[in-house]
Specification:
Structural class: mainly alpha
Number of strands: 0
Distance between the termini: 27 Å
Helix content: 55-70%
Radius of gyration: 14 Å
Strand content: under 5%
Mean pLDDT: 90
Largest sheet: none
Number of helices: 4
Length: 98
């Protein structure tokens, strides 16, 4: 588990670094693509229902976005962790996979 968390920290650090330094110059309709949001959503969709590592990824990605942005500390943590919990809740209640 510690190895997965360490790899997630490194991956999300580089995603936020690329997003805040490089992708700012390539806007689409004056919006920067949010790589962390996309990766948290994909991780939660591809993960098993009973595994909650996607929520931990949401916390890690939100933490790095908070550090690199000029917003309040905790804004992105709440958004990404809440989104991960919401996806898990929807999959647990409404999606049946055999």
């Amino acid at each position: 588990m510690f190895k997965k968390i360490l790899i997630s920290i490194i991956v999300f650090y580089f995603l936020v670094l690329i997003q805040t330094s490089f992708l700012v110059h390539f806007t689409i309709f004056n919006a920067v693509p949010n790589l962390v949001l996309i990766s948290v959503i994909i991780w939660n969709f591809l993960e098993k229902r009973r595994n909650y590592f996607g929520v931990i990824n949401g916390l890690i990605g939100g933490f790095f976005l908070d550090i690199f942005s000029g917003r309040l500390i905790g804004f992105y943590v709440l958004i990404l962790a809440g989104l991960a919990i919401f996806i898990k809740l929807i999959f647990k209640r409404y999606v049946r996979i055999q």
